[in-house]
């Protein structure tokens, strides 16, 4: 909806459409925290380019409106935590599990009981929580009595330490994340699902093919593409890139599939006409 309304702005130049598209993007940030980092990655260069070259005024205005929508919540979290731009205390856990250095673990999130995936396992198959507890139980015991904010900081510090010590393992976990968003594989210490995994293989293989094809078409004709398409393609891929850095699942991809289908349809239609 944000994309559609921004497209109306590029056609009509009516400020109300720019405002409402930014408002909806701000609302999206409040429901999906990773988009707050997408916002930062866009608003900072937009400010610098506007100040130096007086360009990207509409994109800057769009981002400022989105940021303004989040300000009341940011004031609320600042009063609770004393931290600026603090949207959630779950980021540390997400990054911690993603940076696991242990063999056989591919970066999925888990809970404090290490049984997040056990509900998907048949009764006659052993739960994988003891395997997780072996590698992570001691660290969780050390931080379990910390206040929530301090616990989040401890997760982040441990994550950074893992990345520094095992950078290639982190890169492997990122590659696992990408395939997990598309196909829900691989999974750590887990008997693979049958129909729920295979049901994704065929449609998401087509989707991946469409994405790769559209990337070539888009970058080969970037100057001729609609401004709204270019902006939201950049937003979508920034979101996917950031999502791949922390524990991700198919639902992280699913929320932008509607836009991906619009973009791929537009790209292929453009290619056929030209």
What are the key terms here?
12 helices, mainly alpha, single chain, 274 residues
SSE blueprint:
Elements: H1 2-12, H2 15-31, H3 34-53, H4 57-81, H5 91-98, H6 129-143, H7 148-165, H8 167-183, H9 195-220, H10 227-244, H11 250-254, H12 257-273
Quick overview:
72% of the residues lie in helices and 0% in strands. It contains twelve helices and no strands.
Description:
It is a single chain. The protein is mainly α and 274 residues long. It is built from twelve helices and no strands. The longest helix has 26 residues. The mean pLDDT is 92.
CA-based gyration radius: 21 Å
Q: What share of the residues lie within helices? A: over 70%
> What percentage of the residues does DSSP assign to strands (E)?
under 5%
The main β sheet shows up as: none
